[in-house]
Amino acid sequence: MKTQVAIIGAGPSGLLLGQLLARQGIDNIIVERVTGEYVLGRIRAGVLEQGFVDLVREAGVSERMDREGEIHEGFELAFNNRRVRIDMKQLTGGDTVMVYGQTEITKDLMEARAAAGLQTIYQADNVTLHDVKSKTPSVTYEINGVKHHLECDYIAGCDGFHGVSRQTIPQDVRTEYERIYPFGWLGLLSDTPPVSKELIYCKHERGFALASLRSASRSRYYIQVPLSDKVEDWSDDDFWAEFKKRLPANTAKNLVTGPSIEKSIAPLRSFVCEPMQYGNLFLVGDAAHIVPPTGAKGLNLAASDVSALYKILTRVFKENDKSCIAQYSEIALRRVWHGERFSWWMTNMLHNFEGLSINGADDRTFEKFMASELDYYTGYEAGRRVIAQQYVGLPYEELE
Ligand code: APR
Ligand code: PHB
Question: Atom of ligand 1 at shortest distance to CA of 161?
């Protein structure tokens, strides 16, 4: 088998890239380890920057998103019995974000891909990348024990944090930067009306909490928990009781509880792999970087990688100009590090680090710095604007 771009992984990165390339007449095949149903069963993020929304529109898959997605003009930060609204629209001169679940985007992209007759190979075992530095890279995989061979010009490694693509780059060529946080997020999804129309990020002495949503009838809530906690330790009732304690009192009284549809604990990690390309292999999205969810940047950074690679491959195939290929890693990483820094900063400001070890010490001074940071940035319009500009998303970079 032969294609122009072999895409590893049918998450949002791989599917969005595949759709955009196909619209430019660039042939691509996706090779995915699990089934489509399994991919759709993963509950992930739900806040889309304008850049992401525009890209989905350019891919021609925005019909349901534009109909069902909610535009959000602001969100709140709650701490010390105070509530500060970050008026994104006013502070940025008109920018907003859209609330529409990653699962829904993934579903829309999968359906569009199937309707366009584009090939996705699901349940591929032992996916292996070959000769990625050569002009003739290829991918092998097994279906029911039978080996298959896919030849291509380029490989897009969109296979998430645990994928094979990053591991294909020799260890002496890549540098990995990582920070693991001493707590996790316990998330609960429920078909209950959201407690607030806008997201509320709450810093509380009992730990961080986030009130988020998927629609007018579906809520997504999170609480900071110790890393040692297991999801089985948390009944729905336990979750609701703890979540309620961490919400501002006048909001908590409106909380509607109900059975969970999904409940899981996610660790928090900052991770970047440099460079994001090796020969004719490009890493995209979670394959190259992870952010803690505070700030909703994970999916959005995947989208800016997709945008950069899409522009590069379009120039390569449509204008036969290969000189732009070398720009990918640099362009992608610049924006990735901005998102990494913002997510790390929001995580530090909003979580409770009391009694937890950071840099090997129980750092009360760090707590004080962060409390002041939050007070300062929320207390001045210039500070709120800094938060708003990053939350709606920094601009995408153009190719040289
Ligand atoms: N071979 C083929 N496919 C693989 C392999 C492999 N060895 N390993 C993993 N995959 C698949 C996974 O099954 C998954 O469907 O690659 C896909 C990667 O998808 P995601 O993990 O969702 O990563 P990505 O598409 O980059 O999405 C961006 O942003 O907010 C974050 O975590 C959130 O998923 C989101 C991500
Ligand atoms: C979510 O709705 O899942 C969500 C929203 C904002 C975040 C993280 C997660 O910062």
Answer: 21
